[in-house]
Amino acid sequence: MRTFLVLFFGLSASVTWAGSVKPTAVSASSTLPTTQGVNYGPQNVMDGKQSTVWCEGDESGSGLGTTFTVELGEEKEITGLKIWNGNWYSQDFWTRHNRINNLEIAFSDGSKESFSLKNEQVAEVITFESPKRTSSLRLRIRSVHQGSTFDDTVISELRVLNSSPENQLKVAKWSDSSHLPTDSDGSYEPPNLWDGILDSMWCEGVEGDGNGEWIEFDFGQARSISKLNLVNGNAYNLMWWMKSNRMLTAQLEFSNGSSQEIAVKNSIREQTISLDPVTASKVRMKVTSVKQGNMAKKDPDFDCVCLSEATFEK
User: Fold this and answer.
1) Is the sign of the CA dihedral 171, 99, 131, 75 positive or negative?
2) Which of 250, 253, 238, 254 is nearest to 293 (CA)?
């Protein structure tokens, strides 16, 4: 659905980072200058979007030795990183730009650890040898996986992980009534709903406005469920959010035979919906009413319901 990079200033979505530490500041030893209105600054790796990226600006090569520093504000215990390595704006851009191969991480006590990153477009979790107490992390590029076109090394998104318990229920299996086919921007399948990324989404894929379409979350065992965290619509930016359909009401059907009706705010911001506590191993969320986007009647490609995030909590 996303066909070009748009800079659109105004209201934007946000998403809660479960099981992670939010940095106070990020910086880099070099950054590619803004080009044709596109910013490549280090703050992009902390904005919850895979289509906005940090790109090193080493003019002499592929960024070997370039550092990216994450400040935590004070000493905190952390366990690892989750990294969206390379340029995730599209599958084509990921292939054409460099990705980090060997990554060195230095901590505020002077200690260091090194990691080899996969040459795959997957959000990779790296775990430290033991939990580290540190006030900062300095990531240094030691080697790269070479891109097919550009000699620029890119990170799209980064999370600093800790050992705090997560209330978010992990999904063991999923199913849905339909979803759009994979395109150059990636898939539109349900796992996009619990990846912590705002511009990857589930979009149903049948003709019509999406009323009646559903997603099923299977937790693998009976779990206590009391909240639903949701980012409604296509949260890439406000312009795209307004173009596509959003969910206004839904029916939650639980594996224990009960159901609950929920109202969903017509908002791009993250919202938490309190549920009557229930114990179940599965939840099917069925769309029961829709707010059509402003392009839905003009272009059938936009006449589909999208959700950017949807996670259940105990």
Assistant:
1) negative
2) 238
- Residue 12: pLDDT band (50, 70, 90) is low
- Rounded to two decimals, the pTM is 0.89
H/E run at residue 243:
helix 238-243
Q: Which CATH class is domain 173-313?
A: mainly beta
Rounded mean pLDDT of 78-106?
A: 97
Give which of 266, 263, 262 is closest to 291, Cα–Cα.
266
Q: Say yes or no to pLDDT of 73 above 90.
A: yes
**Spans of all domains in the chain:** 20-161, 173-313
Tell me how crowded residue 289 is: count the other CB atoms within 10 A of its CB.
12
21-to-78, 135, 136 alpha-carbon distances in Å: 8, 11, 11
Task: Answer for the pair 259, 250: CB distance below 8 angstroms, yes or no.
Answer: no
The CB-side HSE value for 195 (13 A sphere, CA atoms) comes to 25
Give dist(CA 241, CA 239) in Å, integer.
5
CB atoms within 10 A of CB 42: 21
Residues 6+ apart with CB under 8 A from 270: 13, 14, 15, 16, 229, 230, 231, 309
CATH superfamily of 20-161: Galactose-binding domain-like (2.60.120.260)
- What digits encode the pLDDT tens for the residues 18-37? 688 999 999 999 999 999 99
Query: What is the tens place of the pLDDT at every residue in 252-275?
Result: 999 999 999 999 999 999 999 999
The dihedrals phi and psi of 93, each to the nearest 5 degrees, come to -65, -35
How close are the terminal C-alpha atoms of the chain, in Å?
A: 33
Q: Which two tokens stand for residue 272?
A: 């938490």
Q: What are the respective helix, strand and coil percentages of the chain, to the nearest 5?
A: 10, 45, 45
Q: Which of 116, 130, 131, 61 is nearest to 83 (CA)?
A: 116
Do 20-161 and 173-313 fold alike per CATH? yes
